[in-house]
Write a structure and sequence with these properties.
Helix content is 26%, strand content 26%. It is built from five helices and twelve strands. The strands form two sheets. The protein has a seven-stranded mixed sheet. The chain is globular. The two termini are 19 Å apart. The structure holds S-adenosylmethionine. S-adenosylmethionine (SAM) binds next to strand 5. This is S-adenosyl-L-methionine-dependent methyltransferase superfamily protein. It comes from Zea mays.
């Protein structure tokens, strides 16, 4: 597999993905999406910069891992999104805060995916994320779940989160550089409780 990294794999988080429609925004090599598809059969779409070589590389990585090529969307942050009505319950991303000058565009894309979300069918229920201490966070879709590990200036990091909040999104730091971002309407449904360490769900 020509994958350089799989950053979310390093943190010990459990997600119970009961709602299966997920997109891996800015997926790079596609490693995380391929892992989620292979290990948990998550219905996942990849997306990255509008670039044919990146798309080809993700296709290659899918095939190299004995997987049908995942649906892919070419999208450069801030550009009109090729899908008018996004219906991904969960948008995941890792390691995407390196490009400070692009934060406004990134916020624009994230806002679009969360604010224009239309539920695909009448599934009910919440997404449950369990941290390593056993605390469960339940959130109503759509959610944007992101992690990052690289060192960037503290000021830079808050520029992104402030930008999200200015556009009406709510940012919740779940710890270990994992963030849950939702639109205000759905953020009212975010609930936290401790499960004493039970292990339902997916381990990252
Ligand atoms: C550090 S890599 C992280 C990739 C992947 N998320 C991972 O963790 O392996 C950053 C990614 O951001 C994408 N990217 C950079 N600028 C972008 C932009 N303006 N619009 C969309 N994607 C962009 C790059 O193509 C690259 O895949």
């Amino acid at each position: 597999m020509r994958c350089k990294s799989a950053p979310m794999g390093r943190s010990r988080w459990r997600w119970s993905i009961r709602r299966e429609s997920t997109t891996s925004l800015t997926c790079g090599t596609g490693a995380l999406a391929i892992f989620l598809r292979k290990a948990f059969e998550v219905n996942i779409t990849t997306s990255d910069y509008d670039d044919g070589e990146i798309e080809k590389n993700i296709s290659y990585n899918c095939r190299a891992n004995a997987l049908d090529v995942l649906p892919h969307i070419r999208h450069t942050w801030g550009d009109p999104f090729p899908v008018c009505t996004p219906n991904w319950d969960i948008v995941i991303a890792s390691d995407i805060l390196l490009y400070v000058k692009q934060y406004d565009n990134l916020v624009k894309t994230v806002s679009f995916l969360l604010n224009e979300y239309k539920q695909k069918d009448h599934k009910s229920g919440c997404i449950t994320i369990t941290d390593k201490s056993g605390t469960q966070i339940s959130a109503k879709p759509p959610v944007f779940l992101m992690s990052w590990r690289r060192r960037i200036g503290k000021g830079h990091q808050s520029l992104f989160f402030d930008g999200c909040e200015k556009t009406g999104l709510q940012v919740q730091h779940l710890g270990d550089l994992v963030y849950l971002i939702s639109n205000k309407q759905e953020a009212d449904f975010v609930e936290t409780k401790s499960d004493g360490g039970s292990s339902e769900g997916m381990i990252f």
